[in-house]
Amino acid sequence: xxxxxxxxxxxxxxxxxxxxxxxxxxxxxxxxxxxxxxxxxxxxxxxxxxxxxxxxxxxxxxxxxxxxxxxxxxxxxxxxxxxxxxxxxxxxxxxxxxxxxxxxxxxxxxxxxxxxxxxxxxxxxxxxxxxxxxxxxxxxxxxxxxxxxxxxxxxxxxx
Length: 159
Hints:
This protein is α+β, with helices and mostly antiparallel strands. The chain has helices at residues 10-20, 23-41, 73-82, 114-121, 133-151; strands at residues 47-49, 63-67, 88-89, 122-125.
């Protein structure tokens, strides 16, 4: 049986209230991280940053990329893991979870849902608001390295 627990303890509420004081700073840092990755990774063939729409203001909670070339999400996860850097696939869609597998869901596509495409092709890159430029550079070097290996380029053609 499925159950939900939406209660919030007074301790969690107090922590959340305190974090509201630095919310604008955190969002600014998360945007900086997203833009850093966009600047350094969007040139890679087959890598696409998740879109930012003109009509909204995202909170940049996670920086996720979609891969539609030879480099696959698991390649990125394993390469980062080999350097002791945590990343992960994008969440599995609800309609693919065991509890909901027999439930109907609505999609606008004939071959699977948008969420299935994102799940199959997406990776969440490290995006903690305490990341330094050095840590961001380290992540981008590892990711860029996958393209160097796949394309067998020499290092002089990469920044």
